[in-house]
Amino acid sequence: MKTIFRASLLSALVGIAGLAAAPTTMAAEVKWPTRPVQVVVIANPGGDTDFNARTMAKYFNQITGKSMVVTNIAGGGGTLAAEQVKGAAADGNTILFTHPGQLIVNEVAGLTEDSYETFDVSCIAGVDKSTVFVASKQSGVTSMQDLIDKSKAKPGSITYGTEMGSFSHVQGLMLEKLTDIKLKMVDGGTVSDRVVGMLGGRLDLGAITYGSVQDYVSGGQMVALGQPNDERNPLLGDVPTLKEQGLDITMDKPYVVAFPKGTDPAIVKKMADVMKQITEIPEYAEDLKKFKQPVAYYGTDEAKQILAKTREDFMQFKDELRQAKK
């Protein structure tokens, strides 16, 4: 079952290795920040996106001496948060903390005409490598190959819990496409809702951060089928990659820092520089382990290249995503 798909940061960066050596403007001289910076997060408190934003804010204060005020604006798949930042003054004092679910999937799904180019992207502050495809015990699915066999024998018999039109929906569509199977897509709500649905036997399968299901995997109520990473994330224990199982599939979710359009490029660059310094602090790496996440960072040019490639990859699912939102 050798199938290849790379919605990964590594593949997006192929051919642009020279970017790191390109001349860049010095941002250290710009007087920023001069007051607390508001960080608008597209998700509710407590999840992986919020965790990454608050961890960034903690060390931003340590480096700059100025605080970041984290504001959570959930709803509309992140469009409400994006609209607030889009309409904010381009003075460097408002930042959007987001990911491709809002920046790209919403555009592809027809929820907004805005794209990542609506904002001034500063950097990728981190990458979620903690997601696993997980099956409920009641489903009877014991491995990725077993999932494929069962789905091909009886198409649509396996229910995949997701938030329709979201990043996890794209992950399910990718899995369908690349394994040539048909899943029954079910709107299962938030991550916590989907976990409850799987424990109750209403949902068979999901793509969920490992920290949310680890106890249930250890307890035997769920089975971790594989992690969609290019290499094993050692923080996930013995969970194999899909690649190890013959499916050359990687699906990364980067966390993006962006400013309102028209922000001083020196400020955008300085934020990227500060974030890079944050990733070099040992305590920051230890904090990320709470969400089973290794340290990752990509500068402005690399981040834009990654987002462009991700958008291109996701566009193949435009019809399915728009139909799901009707």
Structure explained in plain terms:
The protein is an alpha/beta fold and 326 residues long. It has two domains: 9-18 and 25-128 and 253-324, D-Maltodextrin-Binding Protein, domain 2, CATH 3.40.190; 131-251, Periplasmic binding protein-like II (D-Maltodextrin-Binding Protein, domain 2). It has twelve helices and twelve strands. The protein has helices spanning 9-12, 48-64, 79-86, 100-108, 144-153, 167-179, 191-199, 210-218, 265-279, 282-288, 300-314, 318-324, and strands at residues 3-7, 37-41, 68-72, 94-98, 119-128, 131-136, 159-162, 184-187, 205-209, 222-226, 247-251, 253-260. It has a five-stranded mixed beta sheet, sandwiched between helices. Strand 7, helix 6 (167-179) and strand 8 (184-187) form a beta-alpha-beta unit. Helix 4 (100-108) packs parallel to helix 11. The protein is globular and about 65 Å long. The two termini are 34 Å apart.
Topology at a glance:
Elements (H helix, E strand, L loop, with lengths): L2 E5 L1 H4 L24 E5 L6 H17 L3 E5 L6 H8 L7 E5 L1 H9 L10 E10 L2 E6 L7 H10 L5 E4 L4 H13 L4 E4 L3 H9 L5 E5 H9 L3 E5 L20 E5 L1 E8 L4 H15 L2 H7 L11 H15 L3 H7 L2
Parallel strand pairs: 1-11, 2-3, 2-4, 7-8
Antiparallel strand pairs: 4-12, 5-12, 6-9, 6-10
Helix pairs in contact: 2-9, 4-11
Overall structural class, as computed from helix and strand content, comes to alpha/beta
Percentage of residues assigned to helices: 25-40%
Beta-strand proportion: 15-25%
CATH level-4 homologous superfamily of the largest domain: Bordetella uptake gene, domain 1
Number of strands: 12
